[in-house]
Amino acid sequence: MVDNDDDSGPSAPRPGPAPKNKKSASETYTKVLRAELYSMTRNDHVPQLSQLEHILKRPDSYIGSVEFVTQNIWTYDSDTKRMIQRDVKYVPGFFKIVDEILVNAADNKVFCPAWSCLRSLITALDQ
Fold first, then answer.
1. 34, 37, 58, 126: which has the fewest C-beta neighbours closer than 10 Å?
2. Residue 84, domain member (yes or no)
3. Is 104 a domain residue?
4. Domain that holds residue 119
5. Which residues pair with 90 in a beta bridge?
6. Is residue 5 part of a domain?
């Protein structure tokens, strides 16, 4: 008598060969990036910028666009004391700087309750 301990039957999946170690996308990317870096010769020079030089050369990385844009937005008309919709020309990067100044001032107000108001003055220079 033959003792057959195979209870899996004819339709059970048979174990295949062990899967090969498949690399993740980040491992593949890292391998490609390393290959590109090693392929650079010493004659290929990537300029190193100081933090200040980087900010001055690429300000849009920090504050946004430094080009003028025109946008139709709601503004307050001090003559009629009403909100009106009109075209406004501004630089988004400058707007971001002013916004950051006001947000920081408001945060500091929390730590100094003696403050009663915040005044800001922005003047336009003709250039």
1. 126
2. no
3. yes
4. 91-127
5. 69
6. no
Residues in contact with 106: Cβ distance below 8 Å, sequence separation at least 6, in sequence order = 118
Tell me the average confidence (pLDDT) per consecutive run of 10 residues in the chain, 127 residues long. Answer: 54 59 64 63 70 84 88 94 95 90 87 82 75
Number of structural domains found in the chain: 1
Q: How many helices (H) and strands (E) does the chain have?
A: 3, 2
Q: Does residue 42 lie in a domain region? A: no
71-74-80 Cα angle (round to 5) = 130
What's the whole-model pTM score? 0.51
* Residue count of the chain: 127
Say how far residue 115 (Cα) sits from the centre of its chain: 34
Give the chain's end-to-end CA distance (angstroms, integer). Answer: 105
Residue 124 to residue 89: CA distance in whole angstroms = 13
